[in-house]
Amino acid sequence: MDTVTRRKFLLTSGVVGAGALAAGAGAYSLRDLLDTAGDRDPQSRTLVLVTLYGGNDGLNTVIPYGDPAYRTARPELAYPDGEVPRLDDDFGLNPALAGLHQRWSGGGLAIVRGVGYPKPDRSHFRSMDIWHTAQPDRPGNTGWLGRWLDGAGGDPRLAVSFEPALPPLLAGARSAGAAVPVADRKAARGLSAETLTAFAAPEAGESAARGRAAACFADLRSVDEMIRHVRDSTDTEAVDPDGEQATATATGGARTPLDAQLDLVAQCVEAEVSTRVFSVSLGGFDTHADEKQLQAVLLGQVDRALTGFADRMSRTEAGRKVVVAVYSEFGRRVRANASDGTDHGTASDMLLLGSGVRGGWHGAPPSLTDLDDGDLKYTTDFRDVYATLLERVLDTDPGPVLADWRGRLDGLF
Amino acid sequence: MTDREAVAHLLRRATFGPTADEVDAAERAGPAATLDSLLNPNRADRGATATPLPALPPDPYAALTKESTREQRQHANAERREQLQRLTLWWLDRMVAAEDGLTEKLLFFWHGHWATSAQKVKSARLMLGQLETLRRHGRGPLGPLVAAMVRDPALILWLDGQKNTRKAPNENLARELMELFTLGIGSYTEADVKAGARALTGWVVDRRTGIARFETRRHDPGEKTILGHSGRFDGESYAGLLAAQPAAATFVAGRLWFRYAGTDVPAPAGLAGTDTVATLRTLFSSPVFAQTRGTLVKQPVEWVVGALRQLGIRPSKLPEQRRKQLLAGLNALDQVPLRPPSVGGWPAGPAWLTTSSLQARLRTAGMLAAAATPAVLARLTAAPTAGRPDALARLLVVDGWGARTRAALTPLAGEPRTLLAAGLVSPEYTVS
Questions:
Q1: Whole-number Å distance between alpha carbons of B432 and B429
Q2: What range does the domain containing A304 cover?
Q3: What is the DSSP letter of B295?
Q4: Which of A337, B2, B30, B127 is at a distance of 20 to 30 A from A164, taking alpha carbons?
Q5: Mutation test of the interface with chain A: which of B295, B342, B364, choosing the one with the most A Cβ atoms within 10 A?
Q6: How high is the ipTM of this complex?
Q7: Which one of B160, B355, B422 has the shortest CB-CB distance to A220?
């Protein structure tokens, strides 16, 4: 893909591959798939992927408080020794992550360190694209879980996002995951079921986009079917989008609160729907300025949402088969800038919890002094983690999804 | 393609959605004269005159001090929100009312290109100021536009420019300026980002007056090397350097093609002109532009504003309740003017075609159909029942319905408002 076409793809952040569009125009019928739904293998696990948009500052998430270089590089931004809840003699967690800290003590939190990829890109959009496509050299126009979906039969209900626009990671070459709205599920439609069904029919010779527009009517019907048994989530607390606190430049991420998205995931899991992959997200991590307070607010939301979700999941058989993985498109520069913030960086930590995940440290921590142009050198390729998740959570051979990537993260499960 | 189809295609793309009467007039004038008058309207815009810029009081935060109470702060917050909502509704009203549809749509293009959100800027006055800057320079060459934008208070606040000082530069603005606004990824290096950030140091925004000013002591006057050129660059000379790059003209022309023609057909060579109006002339005159008919997914704002125009609805004339529903509809569709989700702007194409957005479109279509004026409804019901799907196509400026959509619409011919709502969510209307 040339740069301009590439650029178009990444700017659209949510575009579905051309192949998936053509498929939406009629290559598969959701009505056919409906008949086969519901026969989920009770042993199968579920992956919940949490994307933090904007570049979460990894060094102030998992804090190397024992390393003098940490405080030297960011004197104003570093957390003082006494404030850091300890993980061991060298590392601690951000104080806002109290719930996850408790989970760590019980062996229920895995931290993969220094996750990144060769020749790191410091553009939000390009780097997020690389994470979505799992193609660092030449990001294409399919997402890694979209390619998994292609191989898993293409039923959109297998891969669901609670964001209004479909994240690129769920766009396959021949199929695409479903974007399910959080708030509107029971809203009046205005048009009769007959009209909606009539619009779902494919039309010979029409453009891929028009075919996709018609396929939406079919998708809507099948998603309705899926969540019919899922009881309504309580109204999400109204959030003031323009509150007084400082915010970061937006770089994407869902506007629905993370806990509301995870609440819906929990209800779907408990109802044992056929979905194997859920994508949820939170934005706002682009903390170029006044980072400390801002990041603490966001991490507090992450902490409450994740621990609440994990607690709830531990109470049911289906819930105990869920694995949660949290990542961001990059970490931030080791050295602070003059605005009490940090600029775009490279490698960072991934957090994992849930079914069969072995708590504790995985991978090696990057050095704070042996840097690549001011940034951390990655120690674990993110494709190792993806491959391990595909193998151990989605029971899939990672080869076709990840271009025969051989690396694995041993000991994670 | 007939002449009528050609001018309808042109008007659908170049403006926010033409009415049947506008297509009639354009058909009489012919494609060439229609393009000329779109690009160079030579009469005063009565619609713009009828929707003057809102008079916005100063940022309510300016009156606050360290001693202000919690109640005073909450009150200021509420006032800020109210001002922003007023500005958003004014802009929608202007989009509907304007006769110079090309300029109004171009302004929305630039807003999505220099994507700045009120979520962080918070001041309605500064957002309006940025729109006026984009309006002033949006039709012309790139140089003056980039030079004006690097000193635009809203953009500076949005990308932390006021925190970018010579002691430790903040890269946010410099990076997005090159990646998203001028050159595109791949046309600069990380070293250029760092040097560019130094060139942009020194600008601060006074929240009280809403004015951006240059503070010499915060500026890094040293020598910088950017894109292979060395010199004591400041914001203005850096902007000039960027705008003069051939990559910038190509990149911006490509972005115009992306929004006006889509991705199904690659942009023709030699699209970039000396100014934006020249680029648009080449774009709309290109033989391949005709091939893009029926492939471009309307952005939600395009979909809503086009429907408002065709259904005879002026947002400012709607009752309060309906105005709120209109904004709530755009919110559910995930495209609220002045609030792009990301500095990279809004998504495009099939990203808007999800189960989630379909539900929002269904609800908003119902609201729009309910608000359609009696005159519009009368045009529909004037046709015999069997002819109403065709009357609907004329009303909504759709070239024609396919068999699928005709089958969906025909049973609704006896219920004009339901027919209208169904037309608005049809694939033929959603994808233009």
A1: 6
A2: 3-235+244-401
A3: -
A4: B127
A5: B342
A6: 0.91
A7: B355
Rg over alpha carbons for chain B, rounded to the nearest Å, is 23
Domain-located, residue A412: no
* Residue-wise DSSP of A84-135: S-BSSSS-EE-TT-HHHHHHHHTT--EEEEEEE-SS----HHHHHHHHHHT-
Nearest to A249 by CA among A290, A281, A278: A290
The pLDDT assigned to A25 comes to 26
- Stated as kind and residue range, the H or E segment containing A361 is strand A360-362
Q: What is the mean pLDDT of chain A?
A: 82
> A171, A31 in Cβ contact below 8 A?
no
Contacts of B172 in chain A (CB under 8 A): 249, 286, 288, 343
Residue spans of chain B under pLDDT 70: none
Report if residue A207 sits inside a domain: yes
Q: Is the pTM of this model over 0.90?
A: no
CA B153 to chain centre: 19
Q: What is the pLDDT of residue B50?
A: 97
Say which CATH number the domain at A367 has.
3.40.720
Q: Is residue A182 part of a domain?
A: yes
Cα B51 from chain centroid (whole Å)? 18
- Whether B341 has its CB under 8 Å from any CB of chain A: the answer is yes
Question: Does A181 sit within 8 Å of B343, measured CB to CB?
Answer: no
Per-window interface: B 155-194 vs A, CB < 8 A: 158-160, 163-165, 167-172, 175, 179-180, 184-187, 190, 193
According to the model, what pLDDT value does residue A91 have? Answer: 96
